[in-house]
Amino acid sequence: MDISPRMVKLAKIRNAENTLTRIVLGDIEETGLPDKHFDVAVVMEGLHHVPSPLAVLKEMKRISNDLILNEPNALNPIRRISELRFRNSGVTERSFYEWQLRGWLKELGYKSITVRNLYFVPSFTPRWLLKFAFLAEDLLERIPVANKLGGGFLIVAHG
Q1: pLDDT at 92
Q2: Which of these, 19, 82, 147, 158, has the minimum number of CB atoms within 10 Å of its CB?
Q3: What is the arrangement of strands in the sheet containing 152-158, beginning at the earlier edge strand?
Q4: Domains of the chain, start order
Q5: Which positions of the chain have pLDDT values less than 70?
Q6: Dist CA 122 CA 140 (whole Å)
Q7: How many CA atoms, within 13 angstroms, populate the side-chain half-sphere of residue 93?
Q8: pTM of the full predicted structure?
């Protein structure tokens, strides 16, 4: 589901051979789907683009029991610097703190919340450096304090 007709059209083109996926135009803050329609809701890199992230999380809780969420980490310095270009542009672009997302999910009644910090390798890393960057990323994800600075979170919440 996407609110942009252009992005829905592009997703349909890219997924033309996938007969199991239904791509629709809509607002994830108010999907219009029945309560507990899905076993799990998945929001991948979408929450940080909406005006009301908490409204989206409430809607995901309403339509499903569980949630998989992938979002940018506000503690990541590279991510924070990249957000500066959107300041005063009218574009909704933000990142989140782990405590903020955990708090919202607990408030919504999720019983179990697992967070994994990911993405130390920035998207602008030169191709020739990627092999070494991914090795370093694997190490950094295992270091208790350093792993909190990853570029994003993968969160699994059970209802």
Answers
A1: 64
A2: 19
A3: 38-44, 64-72, 152-158, 112-118
A4: 1-30 (no CATH), 37-158 (3.40.50.150)
A5: 78-81, 83-92, 122-124
A6: 14
A7: 13
A8: 0.78
Q: Are 105 and 155 in contact (CB under 8 A)?
A: yes
pLDDT at 72: 86
Q: 3-state class of 82 per DSSP?
A: helix
Asked if 39 and 121 count as a contact pair (C-beta separation under 8 A), the reply is no
Q: Is residue 59 packed enough to be buried (19+ CB in 10 Å), middle (13-18) or exposed (0-12)?
A: buried
96: left (phi over 0), alpha (psi -120 to 50) or beta: beta
Query: How would you label 17-28 residue by residue, b for 16+ Cβ within 10 Å and e otherwise?
Result: eeeeeebeeeeb
d(C-alpha 153, C-alpha 126), whole Å: 23
Strands 38-44, 152-158: parallel, antiparallel or unpaired by DSSP?
unpaired
pLDDT at 86: 64
Identify the pLDDT of residue 131: 81
Owner of token pair 């076993």: 39
* Residues 152 and 116 sit within 8 Å (Cβ to Cβ): no
